[in-house]
Amino acid sequence: xxxxxxxxxxxxxxxxxxxxxxxxxxxxxxxxxxxxxxxxxxxxxxxxxxxxxxxxxxxxxxxxxxxxxxxxxxxxxxxxxxxxxxxxxxxxxxxxxxxxxxxxxxxxxxxxxxxxxxxxxxxxxxxxxxxxxxxxxxxxxxxxxxxxxxxxxxxxxxxxxxxxxxxxxxxxxxxxxxxxxxxxxxxxxxxxxxxxxxxxxxxxxxxxxxxxxxxxxxxxxxxxxxxxxxxxxxxxxxxxxxxxxxxxxxxxxxxxxxxxxxxxxxxxxxxxxxxxxxxxxxxxxxxxxxxxxxxxxxxxxxxxxxxxxxxxxxxxxxxxxxxxxxxxxxxxxxxxxxxxxxxxxxxxxxxxxxxxxxxxxxxxxxxxxxxxxxxx
Length: 376
Ligand SMILES: Nc1nc2c(ncn2[C@@H]2O[C@H](COP(=O)(O)OP(=O)(O)OP(=O)(O)O)[C@@H](O)[C@H]2O)c(=O)[nH]1
Ligand SMILES: [Mg+2]
Prior knowledge:
Layout lengths: L1 E7 L2 H12 L4 E7 L12 E7 L17 H15 L4 H28 L2 H12 L4 H8 L8 H15 L15 E6 L6 H14 L4 E5 L7 H12 L3 E3 L6 H6 L5 E5 L8 H13 L4 E7 L4 H12 L5 E5 L8 H10 L3 E5 L8 E3 L6 H7 L6
Parallel strand pairs: 4-7, 4-8, 5-6, 5-7, 8-9, 9-10
Antiparallel strand pairs: 1-3, 2-3, 10-11
Helix pairs in contact: 1-2, 3-4, 4-5, 6-13, 7-8, 11-12
Bound molecules: guanosine-5'-triphosphate (GTP) and magnesium ion (MG).
Magnesium ion binds next to helix 7.
């Protein structure tokens, strides 16, 4: 019997390799995430353990069989997997596999140490990568960690490095210009724009700040109702602007300190929606643009969406739904990449409690490094 492991970026790819090399009669013994020492530790990979009792086909090791598609090969091997569970030899092979895996882990750990030349730093990098940090940022954050430090003290250094790299905006306060501060809140669908406005308005109202709420979301059913409901509860005026150009006129009718303007959510593929939000920003006498971005997005979606929605405006970020995210690396890497100032962090649905100034948050920086359940 020939038993061999094969790696690939997907299980199917690894199975294809097994079939090419061992032939159609090969059986699948096990599959799972790759621990192969040749597979880069920071990339996701899979491995399969396959075996054959039959003589190797002469063409099998070199070229794939063009007549049989990948689906046939994969399903054939997958069918065989059930049968081999009953095979008495499986247990023995699994034991060998376990030993091999342990050896692989040791070799991978030592090759990581060799690569960075610093064992502690490299384990820190791999730890950050496990928490979904992008490799580039994980390495950059780890590079200034003192050599003697370990464990949690390394993370404290990473936290400091991150804090130095990120920028923060102070929370919204009264304008000194004599005219109201006009804040347009933008963001992708369901990011928490309207809820964020309600939270901010609620907090401001308790400080005696006079707030006007405006919605420009006129075409979606019940969108204006949502803001009107919040306005009713908070006892704040709410007006609907049918056109972005109406906003300055509406603002002049109220003697207020801060105007919070809600916009409809839209995806980055809806250019009409993006243009509408930009039209509000351009026509409303805007002093601030607050971009709500969910912490649950992947790094690339976060970066692409934020860039698209911000356009060439100066924006501050409100990081929403941090309570729904667990691993911090996607967000931290995206924040480093964007370098937009962070103004607020929102971690929950309670109005007005679940929002805080990002720069004053005790817990945000720790969460951005270590993740876990947000306790802010
Ligand atoms: N867990 C959690 N939920 C939130 C947070 N902020 C808002 N939500 C919830 O997310 C949902 C959508 O919130 P909205 O405020 O309506 O989002 P939006 O961006 O105005 O949505 P659209 O106007 O439809 O684009 C609601 O159920 C909110 O209660 C948050 O920080 N954490
Ligand atoms: Mg909304």
